[in-house]
Write a structure and sequence with these properties.
The protein is α/β, with parallel strands linked by helices. The chain folds into two domains: 50 residues, Phosphorylase Kinase, domain 1, CATH 3.30.200; 196 residues, Vaccinia Virus protein VP39 (Rossmann fold, 3-Layer(aba) Sandwich), CATH 3.40.50. It contains nine helices and twelve strands. The strands form two sheets. The chain has a seven-stranded mixed beta sheet, with helices on both faces. The longest helix is centred in the C-terminal third of the chain and has 15 residues. The structure holds S-adenosylmethionine. S-adenosylmethionine binds next to helix 3 and strand 7.
Length: 258
């Protein structure tokens, strides 16, 4: 009974529940499958016929950002989100919980090994559509995506900004949200994380995304930020996406090409 009273629904997302007495808010998503168990070994609770799944901040950059009280635009109930870098589906499963049974997660992953586990997840989660494809070649999945209400990206690649801009340009409309788990340059090479974030934010803005927020994910994920952005009309104005990123120093493939 006491456990019951400690939860509250997130202000903008009814399928996200929080407990706030701890050092960081503790997050749960309402599991899509009330009869199912955990997806990746996370704690689960049964409550009023619902299954609540603990969103482990150490296992998910979006979960970490929310635990740090960031406020990116979250996938809404009934929405369709394009997800780049799905891996085995840890964060995908929570995003699928958020969009609920009438929404969809179009989950792109290019590596076969994690993709096998993503397929297994999709058997339990009918609102997840796994797409074995390279996010640098969106034409490979354009036939399955059409348009999306939002874009989440966690590819951890040097050209992550270009990948995001190109996919946003192809699949989002103006004012649609983009959430990017940004891996900064590491191992002492390239710019420091803050400088990398600033360069990436400039490249996103020049490409046509308005950057709304950036949250450092320490202590959960070193050298990562969660960046929230919004598509502007300029993204669709022709020629801005991708090319602008390549003009920004320190941003991986694009910069090295110069
Ligand atoms: C950091 S992991 C993603 C973790 C996952 N988002 C989660 O939170 O559960 C990055 C993933 O992106 C995938 N990836 C990297 N480059 C990619 C590309 N160009 N297209 C599609 N997937 C890619 C990798 O294979 C890897 O599984």
């Amino acid at each position: 009974m006491r456990e019951r009273q400690r939860f509250r629904a997130h202000a903008g997302q009814s399928r996200l529940l929080l407990r706030t007495e701890e050092r960081h808010p503790v997050l749960y998503t309402e599991g899509l499958d009330p009869e199912g168990g955990p997806v990746y070994g996370e704690r689960v609770l049964a409550r009023d016929g619902r299954l609540l799944r603990h969103w482990e901040p150490h296992r998910s950059k979006l979960g970490a950002a929310l635990a740090k009280q960031a406020e990116p635009t979250l996938p809404g109930v009934g929405e369709t989100w394009l997800y780049l870098g799905a891996a085995t589906g840890t964060t995908v499963s929570h995003v699928a919980d958020l969009v609920g049974p009438r929404g969809a997660v179009l989950a792109v992953e290019r590596s076969v090994r994690p993709f096998a586990r993503l397929l297994a997840l999709a058997e339990r989660y009918p609102n997840v559509l796994p797409l074995l494809a390279d996010a640098r070649r969106p034409e490979e999945y354009a036939g399955d995506v059409a348009t999306a209400d939002g874009l989440y990206a966690d590819v951890a690649q040097p050209d992550q900004v270009e990948i995001v801009l190109e996919n946003a340009r192809l699949f989002l409309g103006p004012s649609r949200p983009v959430v990017l788990a940004l891996k900064t340059a590491s191992l002492g090479r390239g710019p420091e994380p803050r400088a990398y974030l600033e360069a990436a934010s400039r490249a996103l803005a020049e490409g046509g995304l308005e950057v709304d927020s950036a949250t450092a994910l320490e202590p959960f994920h070193r050298r990562h930020f969660l960046v929230g952005a919004t598509a502007t009309a300029r993204l669709f104005g022709g020629g801005a996406a991708g090319g602008s990123a390549s003009a920004t120093p320190g941003l991986g493939r694009a910069a090295r090409r110069r």
